[in-house]
Amino acid sequence: MFALYRQAALHPTRFERCVRVPRAGTLRARPVALAYRRTLATASGASDPFYMETPRDNDSVFAPQDTFLRRHIGPRPEQIQHILQTLGYSSVEEFVAKTVPEEVVLPEGAVDEKSMPALSESELARRSEELARQNKVFRSYIGMGYQNTTVPPVIMRNILENPGWYTSYTPYQPEISQGRLESLLNYQTMVKSLTGLDISNASLLDEGTAAAEAMILALGTVKDKKRNVFLVDDKVLPQTLAVLRGRAKGFGIEIVQQPLQENGQVQELSSDLKERIMGVLVQYPDVDGLLVDWAPLAKKVKEVGGLVVAATDLLALTMVKPPAEWGADMAVGNAARFGVPPGYGGPHAGFFAATDALKRRMPGRLIGVSRDADGRVAYRLSLQTREQHIRREKATSNICTAQALLANMNAMYAVYHGPKGLRRIAAKVHALTRVLKHELEHLGAKAINANGAFFDTLTIQAPADRVLEAARAKEINLRRVSDDQVGVTIDETVTAKDLADIVSSFAEALSKPTVSAERLQEVASELGLSAQSLDSLQVDDAFHRTTEYLAQPVFNAHHSETALLRYIHDLQSKDLSLVHAMIPLGSCTMKLNSVSSMKMLSFPEYHALHPFAPVEQAQGYLTLIRELEDDLAKLTGFAAVSLQPNSGAQGEFAGLSVIRAYQEAQGQQQRNVCLIPTSAHGTNPASAVMAGMKVVPVQTLPDGTIDLVDLRAKAEKHKDVLAATMITEPGTTGIYFAKIKEAIDIVHEFGGQVYLDGANLQAQVGVTNPVVMGADVTHLNLHKTFSIPHGGGGPGVGPIGVQEHLAQYLPGHPVVPTGGNSAIEPVSAAPWGSASILTIAWAYIKMLGWSGIRTSTITALLNANYVKERIQHKYKVKYVGKHGNVAHELLVDMAEFQAHGIQVMDVAKRLIDYGFHPPTCSWPISTGMLIEITESEPFEEIERLCEALLSIADEVQEIKEGKLPKDNNMLKRAPHTIEALTAETWDRPYSRERAVYPVPSLRQKKFWPPVARVDDAYGDRNLVCECGTVDEYAS
Q1: Which of 3, 178, 653, 761 could form a disulfide linkage to 785, CB 3.0–4.6 angstroms apart?
Q2: DSSP state letter for 158
Q3: What's a single GO MF annotation on this record (predicted)?
Q4: Which residues pair with 354 in a beta bridge?
């Protein structure tokens, strides 16, 4: 804390040139500026103009030269000075004091800088390797929804490790997203084809939440509202059942779990169930490996008006009769087996397929085929009117993101292997399972599914403790089912040596001779199993798949590495990502996703661990998780953190569920009203409904802040039933709410808890925090504030932080203990959600440290205000704070453009011609454009955006003056493609040059959109959600 003053004493001239000594009356703001002032003081006097340092012993010759802050921050110190001068401030301290409300500024000493020091990039690498060595990567054949897979290196390197794929955003702007839209359409086609159902979405968060979404869909379709029982077979994955229980509570659904089959024969339903059932979930194959013919059950459930959901395995479906053929209405599961490693639980793409009758109720993203303004095939997000950002509390789901990056890996895995390759992989897995069964029976151990059909899993009668002990001595993990049952799941990575070690583990436990890999080769030959036999190998005749799948050209054309490499890069070239330009999406925080923080994803010590491996094998992971929890607690002020929620929306649901659990424990079960401002994110009301709450809207004032009179009136009106309020701070209007503490106090006064939406935490960390404001719970978007990439639409992570009184209710898990002593049910299938990408946020925090994180926040504030200052003479900035500043984003109101025929989306599409991803459009007001500039953007790029916006404003002025027609101008016809530029005819009242080169710099660097403006209405009227040939689309 006093290093600043020591620097001033050592280098008074340098210090005075860069920062101003604080005046009396500004001491409360001083801590938030210390890091920045220290950075500026060091940088301006350095011989290297790009030199930026985090606080440490900078005068030591041993100080690292690869510090992260100077690589993470975009503007250089002298440019920061220019920004301050432009804004009319002489110091960072003065700027912060006039931007962040004084009553919520962090008090001095809120966090000890020494408790969160910054590591250099090389120090971080050494630390991550040290933790990696503490993880013991055993061969895990536990199954339970998580299998090993061989990730093709061409996919690992060119998608997972490629910023051209992982730094893009959800494809709301289809003209610059055609590549990943096509790939996600391939994913949908893959799932649809393998399940045999009519339509698939573009992925969900995991298998457990996909099953929960299916349950809610079933509830919404039942006509008799007295039907509220969701029946679950007792062989469904335990983590799925737990997620279902947690989700069912808010909807008044009764979960009934019972055996629905015995020895493969479906049981009769009781008369009571027939009267109350609205849906059923079965596992196919089940957790013990048994394949059951569920057709009789499906028929019985449908006879009483219920829906049938199958949780299934895509690899099995290459050999096994698909769920649609025996009557399933929906199929869900985990697609990770197609080329995505276990990752200690995730992230993985959950899949969801359904019949055509259910398509308008389906949750999540849906990619469809449409056409562009020139009549060419184009892809887009379809049927968005189903989603939470439009329907709010009436939405069918609160899903706001998916697992796009992982779904793209799954799709490319299917493209690479094709239908024949996938079936051969499946056949080998099944063949090895047959060999295993034969040898275990030879030892005298019996599989409980020995008389039934199976694919890759056997459950064996054997002394579990002795088998597991022998297996662990060979560094193998198996599933302990009970004292006398052990489960084994075979996958594509299993070798003859692996299988011999598995069999020998049972042999040793049974005091029998061990076997060799050579012996198993002989067994395979005796069973008629060879590489040549794989193409004809079948499972049990009753389950043999006879229908074709993946016949589309894309799955039959890219089977060499060269072909797939070119296909991947062809798609990548159609998408604008952070490798091309700024993505100034408001409320999305598209900052740098550094290579240093991403590297750990490729370490097998992190990505190869099974989530249910014994915890002593994951000590490195657990240390990392504890450190991340601790750091997030320090940054937010909370007492405890749960990392389990694997999206921001899931964080909302988890936080509200924790509140409800606390209130029920206090004997206040009647509290079920949630007050939500009308300007809130659409996920807020959708999540509140999911948690069993009734949404009561609170009005917003003309200045963009919450109407405290209305808040008090409604809090008092509902005081006996008030559960919570959900408030976003800074608000979705782009400004800090100076009276946030008063708003929170009102809710507390009338017995409610306060959920502070962490969507805009980017403007909080280091300068304020939720606890200073008085909040009880907050979710933290690690894929925004803490640098996890957006992946083109996922993955995300949405941990929650809570005050002490809520800590005991944090989410638990049925397999690996997590959460508090009174834990709510899990909100994700895996104990720590998307564990493998927690490494990214951990690395980001470690490399910046407390001081660097504050510096990042202040830089983001400065950048946003600089853009406001530069463009406000030509655009109306809708809301500003008390001193005329915005927070980390600004809302531009383009209502006045409408009088001249120009809509917000016209400006957005024209920005594409200037080489930018458009900001967030038509939200939180229909005429608005929400612009967020992160700390990572170079000053030159910020200037380029300002110049583009100002140039577009001049183009609008030409339309206003009648120099260009309202219906045929460069905004209405944007974006402009190279095909339009090179066409023989040009039917537009502006030149080709103005269309594509509106500013000179574009001649040196130009992103060409692959399609013209996409026709949204056509795509929804003519819904096609699977890939085919261009000729098929045209017809």
Answers
A1: 761
A2: I
A3: glycine binding
A4: 199, 330
